[in-house]
Amino acid sequence: MLTIEAFSLYIMICVLAPLIGAFTLLFLFVFEKRIDLIEKEKNEIALENELQKARYNQLNQEIQPHFFFNTMNSILSLARLERKQELIHSIETFSKLLKHKYKTNTTFITIEEELSYVLSYLEIQKIRFRDRLEYQITAEPDVQQAITLPFLIQTLVENAFKHSFEKKAGKAELAIHIEAEGPALRITVTNSLPNEGESDSADGGIGLSNISKRLDLLFPDEEKSVGISHSPHRTKVEVVFPLVYKSDLKE
């Protein structure tokens, strides 16, 4: 037979047990959220570090002295030939390109923004390569406001010149194609005159390795890939990652 004290203790346990359980679950929920927040902040810091590394690589490798001086010599030749309109356009384009190199400091930009700077770069290269260079850019209208990593497309384009067009004679043909494939965005850059000095993996070069690392940080739990393939007549690089629009991030 229960005593009054034992019965009171039993009642107290019955009352307190659900409360203790609820507080424990609440604590675990808050703790888990805190862990997720810390992990998110850690990824954001790592992503920013990789972006700074990408900027460093762009400033110290892609804008190489030979590119700079060859471009300046091309602009100087326009001045000597008194081709005023072409000269003004070339200086404006070169200035826009350098401004982008030095001032881009966000973790992502839109496809439309990235392509505008890629076009500046290609216009400069057109001055250098003249009729030898042909390029084509195709991007579906509905992907223009999709986000991408800063320098992603430009790095792939610059690799084509650095590892191919500047090392080999012949027609320099470049094709950039961007399309949506269900929930994914596919960016393909193909160039004639196969690249030299790059392996078939994303770790084959600083540029591709950096792109792969930044994609892992920006989309840690999503499918993505960076691949490069060579054939006797071309080199193709494909980058696939989740299709996310800038407007989605604002909501």
UniProtKB/TrEMBL annotation:
<keyword id="KW-0812">Transmembrane</keyword>
<dbReference type="InterPro" id="IPR010559">
    <property type="entry name" value="Sig_transdc_His_kin_internal"/>
</dbReference>
<feature type="domain" description="Signal transduction histidine kinase internal region">
    <location>
        <begin position="54"/>
        <end position="133"/>
    </location>
</feature>
<keyword id="KW-1133">Transmembrane helix</keyword>
<feature type="transmembrane region" description="Helical">
    <location>
        <begin position="6"/>
        <end position="31"/>
    </location>
</feature>
<keyword id="KW-0418">Kinase</keyword>
<dbReference type="GO" id="GO:0004673">
    <property type="term" value="F:protein histidine kinase activity"/>
</dbReference>
<protein>
    <submittedName>
        <fullName>Sensor histidine kinase</fullName>
        <ecNumber>2.7.13.3</ecNumber>
    </submittedName>
</protein>
<dbReference type="InterPro" id="IPR050640">
    <property type="entry name" value="Bact_2-comp_sensor_kinase"/>
</dbReference>
<dbReference type="Pfam" id="PF06580">
    <property type="entry name" value="His_kinase"/>
</dbReference>
<dbReference type="InterPro" id="IPR036890">
    <property type="entry name" value="HATPase_C_sf"/>
</dbReference>
<keyword id="KW-0472">Membrane</keyword>
<keyword id="KW-0808">Transferase</keyword>
